[in-house]
Amino acid sequence: MARLFGTNGIRDVVGTGLTAPFVTRIAAAVASVAPTDRPVAVGWDGRTSSDAFARIVTATLALAGRRVVELGLLPTPAVQYNVPRVGAGLGVIVTASHNPAEFNGVKCIAADGLEVPREVEAAIETAVERGTIPAVPYDHVGEIVADRLGATRYLDGIVGQVDRDRIARQRLSVVLDCANGAGAVTSPTLLRRLGCRGTTINGHVDGTFPGHPPEPTEANLASLARTVTALGADLGVAHDGDADRAMFVEGGGRFVPGEEVFALLARDQVARHPGSVVVTSIASPASIEEAVRAAGGSVVYTRVGSPAITHEMQARRAVFGGEDNGGLVLPAFHLARDGAMALAAVLDLMARKERTLADLLQDVPRSTLIKEKAECPIGVRERVMARVTAELTPGADRVVTLDGVKVFGDGGSLLLRPSGTEPLVRVTAEGKDPATARRLADRGLAIVRAAVAAEAP
To answer: Would you state the pLDDT for residue 421?
Structure first.
């Protein structure tokens, strides 16, 4: 049986891999595993196909006898926050997060707001393979109701986590890049409610992402950095397509690598909860653990992807977690990657310390992290990774195969990991200086490309 769920849901190209019949089968499979005594909540992002796919999901669930609560167009974390608060037994989000515009996908949320565990994903995959579309008589068709309080409910929750008055007194000037994504529905309002002077760019929802691609990389955020500098703003922040991530730009226009903000917030949380645990993926750099240990905490590593991280956070009662890509989890609010909550946490820390983000980051441990990717057909992925592992492990100081293969030595570390959503192998190299990181990254790319060439049909 083919595995459909990647690191964070089912994703594919619209019109080829992701079609109306396939989404119908996914929705029918969800109906077969959903609790019968509670409704299913459905939300979606702003991609060109999301509204249409969400209608298929909603209709299929109702025709299978399930009551449906439509939450509408919202950021992924807002849907996750609302699932338990509307009493749903399961949630479905139509989203492809940061993937390019041609992608879309389906993500499933458990009754507690966390991503469903792997065993539920496997049950859905089995039901999809069977292909049965359940149907009920006319008098058992499920009710479809709309809940339009999701955004307000979510923002009320975030504001309740921070000192709104203290933030407002700072009169911080913030440039917000919504990437034409779902964050436009909530984050501009959040800035107003926190008393910030907000300027929004790419602030209308448009699934073609005309401003820039929806992944908040340094290259994609050049316009944000320029705007922060031109306006003399205190801070810049950018979301991805479904606003479960937040990346930052300092007042001077410097793009802040995600691991620096992660280390800053993790250190702050551990300092406020001595001896506590932080959870992150094996892809995160050593600088994060250095910051956490210096504050008296410990780090637990997982596979890449928010489902693995949030479930481990729940088990460990961690005070902070996430990944170095801007996907940060503050469990005092909820166990979900949340770009708006991360923004509020950074503003709260700046107000509490009365310091700029640049000042706060001055003593955060740093290393150079380079992320690349090499094409790898899905059909040969396992054989490619076997070749890569055999090539990398001899002579390494330490080898970790928690997710892909990560080797330590030669002045840094190198992680080669197959993508969960695309025909790629992701290459992550870390070094204490740019030259070392670049050398390791180039070595990783060369090894993957050679392995793909050897296995190509």
So the answer is: 64
